Amino acid sequence: MIKTLLGSVRQYKKPTLLSPLFITLEVVLECIIPLVMAAMIDHMAGETLTPIFKNGAILIVLAMASLYCGRRAAIEAATASAGFSKNLRQDMYFNIQDFSFSDVDRFSTSSLVTRMTTDVTNVQNAFQMIIRLAVRTPLMITFSVIMAFSINVKMALIFVFILPLLGVVLFGIVLIVHPIFVRIFRRYDAMNNSVQENINGIRVVKSFVREDFEKEKFYEKTEEVRKDFTRAEKILAFNNPTMMFSVSLSMLLVSFIGAKIIVSTGATELTTGELSSVITYGIQILMSMMMLSVVFVMTIIARESANRIAEVLEYKSTLTSPDNGKKEVLDGSVVFENVKFKYSKRSKRFALSDINLEIPTGSTLGIIGGTGSSKTTLIQLISRLYDATEGTVKVGGIDVKEYDLETLRNGVAVVLQKNVLFSGTIYENMRWGDKNATNEEIEHACRLAQADEFVQQFPNKYDTYIEQGGTNVSGGQKQRLCIARALLKKPKILILDDSTSAVDTKTDALIRKAFLEEIPDTTRIIIAQRISSVQDADNIIVMDGGQIVEQGNHEELLAHNGIYKEIFDSQTKGKEDDKNA
Amino acid sequence: MPKNNGKKPMPRAKKGTGKRLIQYIFSHYKAHMVVVMIGIFVSGLASTAATFFLQRLIDNVITPGIESGMDAVWGKLVSTITIMASIYGVGVLGAFCYTRLMATVTQGTLNNFRKDMFQKMQTLPIRYFDTKAHGDIMSTYTNDTDAIRQMIGQSLPMIGQSVLTIGAIIFMMLFYSIWLSLLVAFVIVVMLRVSKKYAQASSKFMIQQQKSLAEEEGFIEEMMEGTRVIKVFCHEEESKKAFQKINEQLFEDSKNANKAGNVLMPILGNIGNIMYVLLAFVGAIMVHEKVTNIGLSGVGLMSAGIIISYLGMARQLSHTIGQVSMQVPLIAMGLAGASRVFDLMDQEPEEDEGYVSLVNVKNGSDGEMVETKEKTNQWAWKHFHKADGTTTYTKLEGNIEMEHVDFAYNPEKQILYDVTLYAKPGQKIAFVGATGAGKTTITNLINRFYDIPDGKIRYDGININKIKKPELRRSLGVVLQEVNLFTGTVMENIRYGRLEATDEECIAAAKLANADDFITRLPDGYDTMLTANGSQLSQGQRQLISIARAAVADPPVMILDEATSSIDTRTEALVQRGMDNLMKGRTVFVIAHRLSTVRNSDAIMVLDHGHIIERGTHEQLLEQKGTYYQLYTGAFELE
Predict the structure, then answer these.
(1) Which of A209, A334, B47, B370 has the lowest CB atom count within 10 Å?
(2) ipTM for this prediction
(3) Nearest CB to B77: which of A69, A259, A506?
(4) CATH of segment(s) B17-204+261-345
């Protein structure tokens, strides 16, 4: 996991390494400075000023050097961590672009968003902390211990005893708290989820007068968070006093023993200045220990996020373009041979079974079926948005798996059921279909999709800015724009997956009429709820439970007196009554 | 530690937020806070005392000891150490007490904030939710409360202690030498200036980082939502390029923000070092030149002892200032967060001046309705008349009248013009019209999500403004096009309609809505957990559940707003049959764009830009050969 993540450091290796280097220098300087200060203090009572000036000058130089190193280290660390997170996000994003539909289903879009934002931020913070402190603190401890020893062994030993004591307590606290924190994360999510649901579903809450009910539910959740968080923080509250206790204890011991040594040896074995230095080093050691435990906490918290990022980075898409795939789609014919499909290996039931179907090029196929009858699944196999579990799907007489993926998808335009427009002008959105489309071509496509008329009514016409999620156009307008966008690809096969459900029946008919007249050679596959949308198709299939249960043209299917007839009747009953009346 | 997704740049806090926040904390945790303050005071004093400890030890024990020998100072050594040990002991105890109490106070306060916010949120009018971005409301619960947690949990105690330490040190410095203190004061001014400069740069970049983070998040969200479209259009390379551009900006801002934050500590630390040297220089010269020292302690010669202790204090001072300066941005963020939290808590709740309530009744001996506590399944409006002090009971029937209703969400754009309609119990009234024609607005007015002036809408003859909102809404079942399910089992979601409904009643409602079939095929049937708004179900399935939810509530009036738009016509016909059974003798409002859904209505209103332009039964409207006729025949134009 760590190796995968570190692979994203790349061009920021230099700052990543420079930062600890400067920190090392800074630490060395920070350890020398008290030494020089001690020397200066010892001369304070002396007769001449020379040693004070000399040491003072050295100190100023050292301080400047330390300032430089500290500043550089800080800057390099900032660059390295910001760069690292940039690369992580980019690597994830790029890898996700290669995901197939089923891969995206597997992770779910909201989870991918969280991984690319919150998780990366967590890792970035931990990374910066690590390159700044993971080097600094052990170094500081080592140097300080060495310095303390070089001044006086007896007193240095005091720290050697107290240090592990402090270490055990601090790390013990972290270990106890960690599982509580993991639980807190979960509870926090549940609590936030409850808020989110209430904000989004406020109409439902108010309609059913469930304000108090929701309040109780929420109070329960926030109470749980409070309890756990308080528990965790109360345990963490031991940190500060433990630290203070260790510092005080070593101060007292060092002072006591130090004073005894100085007095009994007449300041030969240890000087007053040295005593204050030893204390400085001692506090540094203990402080570093404290920092180390903070780094430890951060790392543990970031570990969960790091895992989630690595999962995305390491994921190899299950659906890839073949090497030397075919670069041309010959015609718009589609053949399904004994196709079976299920969404995941674990599923017990096939979403599609025993599909055998031929769609001649230039013909129109209508698909009708109830909610959940796998109509969408069927058409998604044509442009290889999913791979068939068994059997083959052929486009232009060739197995779809043999095509270069881009070629195939450019040849097969799908207007998805859950379609989206992107933030940008209408022109920009249309150019998704064809990067180089001229304004005239775009307007032509919009006319075919019956979108031109309402676009012309917008104050800014084709330069109208579409908000994120297409919230400033109505459902029917969105659908028509999406159809126009697909038309611009000039595909061999055009698939409309319930793409005119929000369009009124008259406009729907106009769109189909335009298709017949303007793109007669393109194979058209239309999934619809309304019989009227498919009844003039060359061939209509009726799907139920993942199978084709009826097939034929409108008249044949009516004569067959099956599901199709039933749907037809349900949609036209009143009309027939009127005629009879 | 909640997710910090930094949706919004931090605007400044409102004036008085700090004071209000402190009052808020104290109002719930007065006793705790008093002890906390004592704890901070004690441990602050103890750690300040430690600064002078070494100096005392040197002056009182070591220096005389070197001359007079161990025995002479032994008693003093022991007593000094003992005094220090007890001071330390008290300090540690104080720190322990206040950190533990602070954990309770911090988490308790956050909990109170969340509860108060949620409680307030539930009372806010729909307009608030319609006009405010949901992400913004959400972020007060996440980012803002988290900022407050950091501030009151970490920054405030630390600053309290630091201020104490700084005050004590400055006092001691003045006590020792005014000359040297002037020098220190000069350096501190420099330090504060530097801190200010970097803190400003830091918060500037921080805001920029938040902004570009929000932008990137928006971009990612959009692209992830549209990932299927990207694939279908082979748009991967373009989306990568666009992403890189945004990502690069975020990198720059994040780098700068971190830089400004990171460099402050080394800079302040080394200014401290330089101050140390300056003090040593000046002090040594003063000693050497026998300059008269003036301090609060009196006038005398400058001595080495004074300088040495002075140096120790200077070091401690610069260290403490460094610590405080690190807390400033956290406090600014915390206050901004608190300001937004208070803002939510200060919102005006939905007004409800209604006094007519819904009560169970039974038939009294003389055929009159009598109010009862029993569940009789017979309901009546209890109406108290102020004028004559009488109380009348009106049977709940579901009779809705609207008269000459005009409405606008905002003054510039009127939505409804002179809408008049009568819906009798048992009638099915349909609204047909284009998006934005005002269909949904009418239903928003009936259940008073939005209010209009008195008397224009009457429910069973009672002005709905006089009816208590909760009671009014309880008598209306609403199924909306956009389904919102809650985390919980399918059964719990259906029971949402009526909390005391039995399992059998819920299942019966599901059967009625034709949802039983697919629910029983779910992995755990009715016990299947639904998460993320039921994302594992199709849109149609979610609509069926929401219909079952409304059916279990069994209200006298039902509003179906595009409730079956994602259900195929065959299933819809089955659902409708069920609904028709349920709604016998009740009033139903139906909004649909599919004409087959509304055909069997008792009255169909065709809406156009807020005007009812046609009304009548299906047959009557066809005869009129108006808009409805055109809509209807449009479907069969190519026949």
Answers:
(1) B370
(2) 0.77
(3) A259
(4) 1.20.1560.10
